[in-house]
């Protein structure tokens, strides 16, 4: 069977899997961004309880393997009476894992805002909440977006793991086709290519565009 | 099935898990050694005098970096037999980890080399040092400390990615947990123990690396305040 015949027969199945992969990517990205911001801010809190909670969360999720967390969410939580659907378990595990990494990026970004900005806001008698919202947060985006973009590409790659908890994504379909046809080079090669195309021609350009947008917004863009 | 944690079961399976941990550490160690060398090759491949070669190597690195390790594992493991080459699970796992993390380490090396101030090169030029001598005595001793934190991070990274190897049947920690869990039909204790072992090993390692990073930054005079 040549490669074109393979594509015609199995291409649609792989594309269907790709749609699921993209769904996981989008849902997990939204979740991880929210978690990053919340825990990044909690890490900077002066209250030791709040800060401690965030530190434990971050160390826990960064210290264990994503696959272990994923299996824990999918196979162990039912023991406690909480049964998650495979898709939900995948999104939650990936979102929480990457949220831990993202929280550190957010924290670093907030700390990297020049001290004069904090002092200026203080001198103008802004409340702490307003200072964060109007002065500090808008300035962190050009700082955090480059590392966050790297993290998001890592997240795309991590979505492949959800196949191991039976989410029918691109990896899962590739595995299925492989076990039927044993044309490993074709099906895994195509899957690799699809991941590459998503990352190289869609995800990365989009994230670069966001970076430029954020830099322009605070007047740091290239003219 | 109930949510109760059974200590006797946990202790019964613990020795098996600890043995499997040795396999995990071994896989991470061997994989890392290969990746360290492969990373150097990828770096050199991007610094040849031929622009076409550099571009091709660059694209290969990009390709490996932007595709999932899991499918790369399947690819290396399953494609060989199709062409009459049979690789054992361990060999394919080490090849894949070496290639995958080699691309990341090549970036670390590159960053470290670029971290050495350009004036150092110019001074060596002025002193009429050969390129080799410049690298050996001036640039590399300064680049190495910059690379240490990044290299350490990827060591921990490889360690945390070893559970993926269980998918092609490498008998490491996660594989043992799945086997034990399937045998007794109890996943609570095995997977929790795996998580704890990972925490015990990787949190102190990550802390050590962060400490190292700070001391390196201090030694380089790049500390804030």
Q: Can you describe this structure?
A:
The complex is a heterodimer of chains A (223) and B (225). Chain A is an all-alpha fold and 223 residues long. Chain A is built from eight helices and no strands. The termini of chain A are far apart. The mean pLDDT of chain A is 91. By secondary structure, chain B is mostly helical. Chain B has a single domain, classed as MetI-like fold. The radius of gyration of chain B is 22 Å and the shape is flat. The mean pLDDT of chain B is 89.
List strands and helices in order, with pairings.
The complex is a heterodimer of chains A (223) and B (225).
Chain A: H1 3-43, H2 48-63, H3 66-76, H4 86-112, H5 115-123, H6 128-158, H7 170-181, H8 184-217
Chain B: H1 7-45, H2 51-65, H3 69-82, H4 89-115, H5 118-126, H6 131-161, H7 173-184, H8 188-219
- State the low-pLDDT regions of chain B, or none: none
Straight-line N-to-C gap of chain A: 53 Å
Fraction of residues of chain A in helices?
over 70%
Oligomer: heterodimer
Q: Which H/E pattern describes the elements of chain B?
A: HHHHHHHH
The topology string of helices and strands of chain A comes to HHHHHHHH
Features:
heterodimer, A: 223 residues, mainly alpha, MetI-like fold, 8 helices, flat, B: 225 residues, 80% helix
Summarize, please:
The complex is a heterodimer of chains A (223) and B (225). By secondary structure, chain A is an all-alpha fold.
